[in-house]
Specification:
Oligomer: heterodimer
Order of helices and strands of chain A: HHHHHHHHHHHEEH
Radius of gyration of chain B: 23 Å
Number of strands of chain B: 8
Shape of chain A: globular
Distance between the termini of chain A: 45 Å
Shape of chain B: globular
Largest interface: A-B, 61 and 66 residues
Structural class of chain B: mainly alpha
Radius of gyration of chain A: 20 Å
Chain lengths: 346, 450
Amino acid sequence: METVWFILIALMLTAYVVLDGFDLGAGVINLLVARNHDERRLVLRAIGPVWDGNEVWLLATGGALFFAFPLLYASSFSGFYLPLMMVLWLLMLRGIGIELRSHVHDPLWWSFFDFVFSASSLLLAIFFGAAIGNVVRGVPLDANGFFFEPLWTNFRTGANPGILDWYTVIIGVLALVTLMVHGAHYIAIKTEGDLQERSRRVALRAWWLLVLLTVLSLAATLYVRPAVLDNFRLRPWGWIIPLAVLLSLGLMRKFASAGRFSAAFFASTTYIAGMLGGAAFAMYPYLLPANTDPAYSLTIYNAKTGAYSLSVGLIWWGLGMVLAIAYFTFVYRSFRGKVQADQEGY
Amino acid sequence: MDDALVIHRIHFAFTITYHYLFPQLTMGLAPLIVIFKSLALWKKDERYNKAARFWAKIFAINFLFGVITGIPMEFQFGTNWARFSQYAGGVIATALAMEGVFAFFLESSFLGVFLFGERRFGQKIHWLAAFMVFAGSWISGFFIIVTDAWMQNPVGYEIAADGTAHLNSFWSLLFNEWARWQYLHNMGGALITGSFAMAATGAFYVLSQKQEEYGRIFLRVGIIVAAISTVLQIFPTGDQQGQLVARHQPTTLAAMEGLFETERGAAIVLIGQPDTDNQKLDNPIYVPGVLSFLTHKRWDAEVRGLKEFPRDQWPDNIPLLYYSYHIMVGLGTIFVAIMIVAALLLWRKRLYQSRWMLWILMLSFPFPYIANTAGWITAEVGRQPWLVYGLLRTSHGYSANVSAGNGLFTLLGFMGMYTVLSILFIVLIWRELGHGPAFLSAETDGSGSH
């Protein structure tokens, strides 16, 4: 049962990164690709009806984590206290950046909220990447399963790590570039003309960086945490995942240069799912490894709640997912096609 | 008290108090918007549609601020109350996760249809969308109350071998006796905030002789709903809630009433200042026997005073508890008086000429916010020194690994952030009040939430 919840939570997290990832990416490239008020409105319209629904996956993932693995929730949220609080502030600023921009018809007001939207999206992408980096690298857990990490210490991955060290910074930048490419694909799908062309160019240029960072991050991960290969040795079918990552990396460039943006978006989705799925596959059954004493690590076995709760959870969770899928089908269907300058909203 | 404990308590208290300013209005307005949509369909009167659109705009702004300030609440269980989360997550996270999964999808999807689908989907679907937004926000509130009710009166759990609480009955958790009355009492409070805001807006338009037609509609609907909900708030929901406290949390009851000595035929105190050091109440003005009657339905029943209980089980801030309880009850009584007089004037068709009453209504809108806040302070300070009543002390629940310095850093950050949010909120609401409902057709302008 705890394995089922491990998989479900990994899936929800992937759904979050894929979905909120494209609107975060759209925020990062907003100032690069959209040059004037009308174009920036189009970017907002392209994500407007969906960004808040996308963000709910973060809350739903958090809720499921809290409910299935209370100790992990308690330990990681308090241990990552400072960066999480900053994530909250950034999420708030980003929300008002998106929603309040159109309320007042004034160029200064617009500029201010454009900046808020882009800057918060950029920092969020880096923070989320660094968070994943921390989980993979391991944290200084004590015997009770708790820890506290400052924002940075000496930028080394050793005994007294901070949230930011050379490894987690690489993963943070990787996340940023990934979401830029992913977001650029999305904006290219939803727009036409100059805006679409500039998004295509951003996607293609950032692609080189993405290849470089993918290789670098995989090498760095092997150096920081050689144990990631254990599960691949144990279950060789897992090698499909890195293969899918490489394949989608190649395909997204091919599709984007051919102007087939939906296919490119699908490829970047596969890339994200592969990277996260690969990490989850390599981690299992660890949830939060300790870099102090391996015995202190949080696993799905020592962090889970009671069996009754986990079983009942499957029922209401299943119902919730039916609702969520109905909601997403409805929203994305009624929102298909290109966004136009003369539409309602934003 | 430990520095870190104090900071973590203030951290949660500050962010939740600020957050709840928004949902209490959206939960209160949602049924009123359904009333307007129903009147529009029934009477075929376009003015009710305009009224619904106007309040939908106010709703949307409040909804956005509610969502934005709500995200930190779920996080703070883990960040600031880690030992509590580890202990109770297996039980309460079920309710919290359900809130996230169900209610939000319901509310947010239909809010989109409600705000931008009036022309596209037609009036009947638009009514349905309004109704689903109402249902979604009220279901959302239910799961949050279930969480708090478990902390007040834990049920449906067992303590596992590792010392943490595990759920053993899903239905007991959901249908906790405490949750039932607390929910009704809380939603009544939200209705009071919503209907007072509506009546105040109506009074503002009538007094300033601007869009008066709509001002009168707002006054009519606001006063009728407020008159009903203020009465129900005292009886039965407030009365039942009080009896639950008397039965399950006798120490809390004694502290709320400032009752130090056990008394037969205990009096209810209207005004007075508790002196915790000397264990007495200064300058009391009281009505004999009433407290005994209210809690036990007998005028001469014995009510236990604080001195009966060990000192380490007393709520740790008796004056705050005492005052917030008295503010809540005092305001609640005044609300009934105002709304009954207003309803009489409305019935006798003299309301729109009674400028003194319109002034009272216009200026009264902040007070339901104060009463709701005071009510929640009563519930949560009254629960002390327990985090989960009788099971886990507050001093054992906070994140021991997060120092007071780090906690204060983020508390100050939130204070700054919420100052900015408050300024933006006031500007936006002020603009909508200035525009008014008269010129709103279905989706003419693109401003507002999407």
